[in-house]
């Protein structure tokens, strides 16, 4: 939601270098993302490290993300949240200020990162999504890219054993929500849409990490239309 400053370029380069030193980063699949937005990037959430990794490795694309408001309470994380233009969101309720900022970012042609599970998975497997991701995807007719990763949650514990983790990123098949931008769906339909969106994330993950979405339906999605 802003132009990249000289300071941010230096910080981004330093963070990318640090990730490559700490882990074997397989990020080549991120090149499948278009060079420009708008688009929603929905990602699984297993670590506090994946957000920074996503941001610095998809540059120079213009991007922002939704982040829990608690990240602004301490100066180290607050520095990065402000530098990267992350949108603070209050968890546990509908944060209309955050929603307006998210819609504004998409209207400006930015990528919007969302972790639909809302909180970290302690096992690395998918948890059930909150319907907020479906709400945003139904309000703006933009493509949605399932972007998943695995290996990140083991980075710090492996470093303690003097081992480098392999961290893998994969991009699933992009789609749009059918009828996006029209009259808002009911809460029940939003839940169904969110689950269909999560199944697309599950398809991009190894079976052992599909968790709540392991039983991928064999039929085509009811609410999603694939891109391309």
Task: Give a structural overview.
The chain is of the alpha/beta class. The protein has one domain: Glycerol-3-phosphate (1)-acyltransferase, CATH 3.40.1130. Helix content is 34%, strand content 18%. It is built from seven helices and nine strands, in the order H-E-E-H-E-H-E-H-E-H-E-H-E-E-H-E. The chain has helices at residues 6-22, 50-57, 75-83, 96-107, 132-139, 155-160, 187-204, and strands spanning 23-26, 39-43, 63-68, 87-89, 111-114, 144-150, 165-171, 175-177, 224-226. The strands form two sheets. It has a seven-stranded mixed sheet with strand order 1-7-6-2-5-3-4, with helices on both faces. Strands 8-9 form a two-stranded antiparallel sheet. The protein starts with 5 loop residues before the first helix and ends with a strand.
Biggest β-sheet strands, sense, barrel: 7 strands, mixed
Kindly report the oligomeric state of this protein: single chain
Shape: globular
The average pLDDT value, as a whole number, equals 93
Secondary-structure content class? alpha/beta
Q: Please bin the fraction of helical residues.
A: 25-40%
User: What is the number of beta strands?
Assistant: 9
Q: What CATH architecture would you give?
A: 3-Layer(aba) Sandwich
Structural Rg: 17 Å
Distance between the termini: 28 Å
Spatial strand sequence of the major β-sheet: 1-7-6-2-5-3-4
**Strand composition percent:** 15-25%
Poorly predicted regions:
none
Number of helices: 7
CATH fold annotation: Glycerol-3-phosphate (1)-acyltransferase
Write down the CATH class. Answer: Alpha Beta
CATH superfamily, by name, is Glycerol-3-phosphate (1)-acyltransferase
């Amino acid at each position: 939601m802003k132009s990249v400053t000289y300071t941010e370029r230096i910080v981004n380069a330093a963070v990318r270098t640090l990730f490559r030193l700490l882990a074997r980063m397989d990020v080549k699949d991120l090149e499948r993302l278009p060079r420009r937005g708008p688009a929603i990037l929905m990602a699984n959430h297993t670590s506090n490290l994946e957000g920074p990794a996503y941001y610095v490795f998809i540059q120079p694309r213009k991007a922002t993300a939704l982040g829990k408001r608690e990240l602004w309470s301490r100066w180290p994380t607050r520095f990065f949240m402000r530098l990267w233009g992350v949108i603070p969101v209050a968890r546990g309720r509908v944060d209309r200020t955050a929603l307006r900022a998210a819609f504004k970012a998409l209207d400006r042609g930015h990528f919007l990162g969302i972790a639909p599970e809302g909180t970290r998975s302690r096992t690395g497997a998918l948890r059930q999504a909150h319907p907020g991701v479906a709400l945003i995807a139904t309000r703006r007719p933009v493509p949605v890219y399932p972007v998943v990763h695995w290996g990140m949650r083991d980075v710090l514990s492996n470093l303690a054993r003097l081992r480098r983790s392999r961290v893998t990123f994969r991009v699933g098949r992009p789609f749009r929500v059918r009828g996006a931008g029209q009259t808002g769906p009911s809460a029940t339909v939003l839940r169904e849409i969110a689950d269909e969106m999560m199944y697309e994330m599950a398809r991009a993950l190894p079976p052992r990490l599909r968790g709540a979405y392991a039983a991928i339906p064999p039929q085509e999605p009811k609410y999603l239309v694939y891109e391309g």
